[in-house]
Design a protein that fits this description.
Length: about 400
């Protein structure tokens, strides 16, 4: 068998795409003019973007605090390039650690009330390296069924056994915890904010269950840092920051850069530094990205009103969508889904909004459960009222037709 035969089938045979769990073949969708991915942006101001010379309102970005174009963040990145160049040319383990990496780690640990933190080159690598390094043979990792792919990949890379529970179902989590052998090390891993529908994990109940059953808890708060808990994340918002063992985060959303981190007890972070393969065998975070994240975190601390602003905008949009009769699920964050259900209908709605000058994203199975294809809208602190008015007017026109 030719290893590449599947690639040819994927390109030409829609039924093969379906066998891989895709609701629609990319080739077929592209032929219909409904392909929503890999659209090149000519320019971006943040709240607006240019696509093929045409200005559009952006409600499909994770730039929650609007800091990617902030002059202070830009200057910090530029100054870092001027001083250190464009790359560290090595891993953190060897020649790739700069003093600013350690300063950022100290700032993150203090911000989250943890003893220590370590910075990875991406948020994906932070989950991959942390989870796989902690779980050995005989250990068990328990995940919410809607956890991010990077969490699942970290579990699969580990030597531990993966178990899952129904989304945000604490009774099902308790059932799984009761089934764990008493001699197994157990790690529960959950998103703080779920990235597709913007709902929160019930961390108060999860913390209680972990304490009762002797399990440790890791919260991936990629979409919570800078957004919930006055910027300190979902655990802070729900009052359990001290009870969460590990917090994973990313810089590629509210913190205007790229990269990721994990924060927790000093002994655990020391272990991860020396055992996480995605840290040891990957080039370190570039100076410009490190400086940008450091500066953005400082702005978040100094200007918490940005957090209030983005959540107020999201609440306005949620209420407006509900008034239009749209399903926004359990969103309580700047991620506001428009749940359509049928995949082709979701693609058609996306296309109509796109043609009307509104840039958003489509999520379809397996990224979301079957029958829950949706448009994923998300908002920034720098959105203006006229941006939101434009989005609502376009959507209203679409629905009226």
């Amino acid at each position: 068998m030719n290893l590449f035969d599947k690639c040819e089938r994927f390109l030409k045979d829609p039924s093969y795409a379906a066998s891989l769990g895709l609701q629609a073949s990319p080739t077929v969708v592209e032929a219909m003019g409904l392909y929503p991915y890999f659209i090149p942006l000519d320019d971006t101001e943040g709240t607006t973007v240019s696509v093929r010379g045409r200005q559009m309102v952006m409600i499909g970005s994770n730039n929650y605090l609007g800091l990617t174009t902030d002059p202070r963040v830009r200057k910090a990145a530029q100054d870092a390039v001027a001083q250190f160049g464009t790359s560290c040319t090595g891993s953190r383990f060897l020649n790739g650690t700069l003093a600013m990496h350690q300063e950022l780690e100290q700032q993150l640990a203090r911000f989250l009330g943890k003893e220590d933190a370590v910075v990875f080159s991406t948020g994906y690598q932070a989950n991959l390296g942390t989870i796989s390094s902690l779980l050995g043979r005989g250990d068990i990792v328990i995940c919410d069924k809607e956890d991010h792919a990077s969490i699942l990949d970290g579990c699969r890379l580990s030597l531990g056994r993966l178990m899952r529970y129904r989304h945000n179902d604490v009774e099902d989590l308790e059932r799984v915890l009761r089934a764990c052998p008493s001699n197994a090390g157990v790690l529960v891993v959950v998103d703080g904010v779920f990235s597709m529908e913007g709902d929160l994990a019930p961390l108060v109940e999860i913390v209680d269950l972990c304490r009762t059953h002797g399990a440790r808890l890791l919260v991936d708060d990629a979409h919570g840092i800078g957004v919930t808990g006055r910027g300190r994340g979902t655990a802070a918002q729900l009052g359990v920051l001290d009870e969460v063992d590990l917090i994973v985060g990313t810089f590629s959303k509210a913190l205007a850069s790229v990269g990721g981190f994990v924060a927790g007890d000093a002994s655990v972070i020391h272990w991860v530094r020396h055992r996480a393969r995605s840290l040891i065998f990957s080039a370190s975070l570039p100076p410009s990205s490190t400086a940008a994240a450091f500066t953005a975190l400082g702005i978040l601390e100094a200007e918490p009103e940005r957090v209030d602003r983005v959540n107020a905008i999201a609440e306005r949009m949620r209420n407006a969508y509900r008034a239009m009769g749209l399903d926004v699920g359990g969103s309580v964050t700047p991620i506001v889904p428009i749940i359509v259900g049928d995949t082709m209908e979701a693609l058609k709605l996306w296309k109509t909004l796109f043609e009307g000058g509104v840039y958003t994203n489509v999520a379809m199975p397996p990224a979301v459960p079957d029958g829950k294809s949706l448009l994923r809208t998300s908002y920034m602190a720098t959105h203006k009222e006229e941006h939101m008015d434009q989005v609502l007017q376009v959507l209203s026109d679409v629905l009226s037709k």
